[in-house]
User: What shape does this take?
Amino acid sequence: MDIDETAVAAAFAQPDIDGRFSGPLGDYLRIAGHRRPVLFFAFPPKAAGTFLRAAAIEAVGGSLVRGVHAQGGRDAQPYLPVFLQYYLGGLCAGPMVVHAHMQALPANRHFLEALGIRPVIMLRPIPDMLASYCDMLSASADPAIDGLNCPIPAAFATLPHAEKAGYLIDVVAPWYAGYFATWRDYARDCPDEVCILRYADFLADAAAVLEAALRHADLPRSRAVCRSAVDGVWRERAAQRFNKGVMGRGAAYFTPAHRARLDALLGHFPELAPWREDLLPAAAMSSGAAAD
Assistant: This one.
């Protein structure tokens, strides 16, 4: 790996106050970003990100690389030294695959744009993701360490269902709403830069969804290759944190009052109107109450 003085200076340089990389630093990063492809899954939690990243790694011969400074910080932010090391020929022989629960906040957008990274996201109903997240937190305390810009109560697994549901709606759901609002803004402003996948499509044909993600990242693979990769990971889906994989499962966890609060929460972000049916399907608004 050839590390020159410019690379060292770039690793220690701060971007502009808004996160932009301007001047000679920006020029250097734009050139570096064309050296090797990056597949960047910026999925929210419990949207099949772990499953798809494993299938992508199998399909392209890539490696999972932690592209953020540390897990458990205040939201995921990409860490420039890691990317520079990769572009200079280090870290892995094949393509770098990153999976980060990252919002499309301005500084994160500027980072991706500076390196020419075109991210992939997934739309899934928020009640379903919260239900799956509840299962994960109830089964083990380990995922709580990573956090979602909020602390998880140490006794979460032992709480009554009603308290778990209330916590997820009041504390965790706002993160999801903000996440999707930032990505909707980015996708509207730069429609060719963001690959938008849908969970229902993933359940119907995971190979086609994987193929679309790889094509977007300039790592095209045939449908046959994608199908083989998906089939291989499917046999080990439990190890990839694949839970139920069922649309509408949030109806068994949340009451109509909970769903009304979710509806009001999303209403604070009018830009989400085109995605409202993806994030809170009308059927979910009329479902029966969850058991306490």
User: Anything to note?
Assistant: The first strand starts at residue 38 and ends at 41. The chain has one domain: 5-285. Residues 287-292 have pLDDT under 50 and may be disordered.
